[in-house]
């Protein structure tokens, strides 16, 4: 099976419009977050009541909020929280879920059954519900939001890993490896994991988009990123009381969330198509 770095990957990727559009939008998200560390038009922590609710103009390209803060600066810095939550939360789900899925596929029997039933139990606690429970005990904050979203990702990755690994275990080269005396863990590490990596990469990209949505929802409810740190979800919450005075305040963070999620979903779908072995043969 060809790896993502194999000759022809980028040629196929460039011919896939979804992959290109998704890659550009995702790159813009990363660049916005990176740019905010070295430059923003104004400080996001300075309050200027004399400049509150200004319309878009030369000084403030997208206007200002109810505290006189520059909206462009808030959007740039708010991208940090989205990426931070997405990377760590998806990383938690990917590492733990993949390990559990590989264990279930390698051991089978009661081990597989126990892991799958725990996964079913995990699906009963969505990220928002988990965050509410953590908030009730430890208080609101971005750390609790990350933990809640990460826990919610674990059963998803466990199930996908187990299903993909089970299909690999039935392949001829795995049977030959078992006949040669290799143990289940050596086969898992040398044959199973490398062959399911494309599936995991695609799923991680899609879960990244879901994590951004979950972070925005939690911040909107006051359970995620806390003031004075900017967040797209909290920008939406603050804008809803000003819909008739400054409706654009809700448009900018909403557009940022929508474009980021759209880009990551298109990128994930594009990766799935480009990494599909059947499509590789046709390309």
Q: How far apart lie the N and C ends?
A: 14 Å
Whole-number tally of structural domains: 1
Counting DSSP H or I runs of 4 or more residues, the number of helices is 11
- CATH class group: Mainly Alpha
Under CATH, the homologous superfamily reads MetI-like
Helix content: over 70%
Taking pLDDT < 50 over at least 5 consecutive residues as the criterion, the unreliable ranges are 1-7
Percent range for β-strand residues: under 5%
Written overview of the protein:
There is one protein chain. The protein has 283 residues and is mainly alpha-helical. The chain has one domain (17-34, 70-282): MetI-like fold (Orthogonal Bundle), CATH 1.10.3720.10. The protein is 73% helix and 0% strand. It is built from eleven helices and no strands. Helix 3 packs parallel to helix 6 (142-169), helix 4 packs antiparallel against helix 6 and helix 8 (184-220) packs parallel to helix 9. The longest helix is centred in the first third of the chain and has 37 residues, at 71-107. Mean pLDDT is 90; it is low at 1-7.
Brief account:
The chain is mostly helical and 283 residues long. The protein has helices at 9-14, 17-38, 71-107, 109-123, 127-138, 142-169, 172-179, 184-220, 232-239, 248-275, 277-282. Residues 1-7 have low confidence and may be disordered.
Blueprint of the fold:
Layout: H1 9-14, H2 17-38, H3 71-107, H4 109-123, H5 127-138, H6 142-169, H7 172-179, H8 184-220, H9 232-239, H10 248-275, H11 277-282
